[in-house]
């Protein structure tokens, strides 16, 4: 995923926390902030040390980035997303994380449902 799709600065994270809406499930909390002047979405990731060691945290972040990479066309553009992983995410494989992220983004009305055109 290109760096233009990432939120890195603390001030940008704080803006999303303060002004954005949040949705959550057991594995993730997602803050969503509408940005009209932006041509694409951006994501910021937060995975606490409480979740596990560096290997575990990096794996979770990799899985989240992969989900957004695969679903670029489905995710609402012109929004900033901050994803906070919770403890149960440490034991999940990619498919479980994908399903959980899809669920929480559907709750936040930030992803289109997958169409089954290939039947």
From TrEMBL:
What is the E.C. number?
3.1.26.5
Provide a Gene Ontology MF annotation, just one: ribonuclease P activity
Alphabetic keyword roster: Endonuclease, Hydrolase, Nuclease, RNA-binding, tRNA processing
Q: Which Pfam families match?
A: Ribonuclease_P
- Enzymatic reactions: Endonucleolytic cleavage of RNA, removing 5'-extranucleotides from tRNA precursor
* Primary role: RNaseP catalyzes the removal of the 5'-leader sequence from pre-tRNA to produce the mature 5'-terminus. It can also cleave other RNA substrates such as 4.5S RNA. The protein component plays an auxiliary but essential role in vivo by binding to the 5'-leader sequence and broadening the substrate specificity of the ribozyme.
- On whether RNA-binding is a keyword of this UniProt record, the answer is yes
What is the designated name of this protein?
Ribonuclease P protein component
Q: State the source organism's domain of life.
A: Bacteria
Q: Which organism is it from?
A: Siminovitchia thermophila
Complex and partners: Consists of a catalytic RNA component (M1 or rnpB) and a protein subunit.
Q: Write down the top EC class of this protein.
A: hydrolase
Family, per entry: Belongs to the RnpA family.
Q: Give the source lineage, highest ranks first.
A: Bacteria, Bacillati, Bacillota, Bacilli, Bacillales
């Amino acid at each position: 995923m290109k760096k233009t799709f990432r939120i890195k600065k603390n001030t940008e994270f704080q803006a999303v926390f303060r002004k954005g809406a949040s949705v959550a499930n057991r594995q993730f909390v997602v803050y969503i902030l509408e940005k009209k002047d932006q041509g694409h979405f951006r994501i910021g990731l937060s995975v606490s040390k409480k979740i596990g060691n560096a290997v575990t945290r990096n794996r979770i972040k990799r899985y989240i980035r992969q989900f957004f990479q695969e679903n670029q066309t489905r995710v609402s553009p012109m929004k900033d997303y901050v994803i906070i992983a919770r403890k149960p995410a440490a034991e999940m494989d990619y498919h479980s994380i994908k399903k959980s992220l899809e669920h929480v983004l559907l709750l936040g009305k930030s992803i289109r449902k997958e169409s089954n055109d290939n039947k």
